[in-house]
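REVIEWER CHECKLIST
Item 1: Sequence provided? yes
Item 2: Single chain? yes
Item 3: Sequence as submitted:
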Amino acid sequence: MYAVIFKAKVGQQNDEYLKTVGIMRELAFEKYGCLDFIAVTEGEQEIAISYWDNMEAIREWKNDPEHTLAQRKGQEAWYQSYTVQVVEIKREYAFER
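Item 4: Structure as written out by the authors:
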């Protein structure tokens, strides 16, 4: 399993941003097989972690035309900066009551 970690310093996030986030999330799940997607914003910092079965799905998601357009808008207005890390999960454990 793989994870994509998106860390950003937010810029101007408006109604268009919120709508686009919802569309991108739905696209990731329905078209590219995203397993889970968690996003949190605190102050000027945002982090989103998505989980995937394979690297091919991640590459296809990154290069999707709608996602490419959203990335461009992010660079132009919605984010001051961001980094993306793609990591392979080597070990996992959990606790559940």
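Item 5: Key structural point noted by reviewer: Strands lie at 2-10, 36-42, 45-52, 79-88.
Item 6: Recommendation: ____
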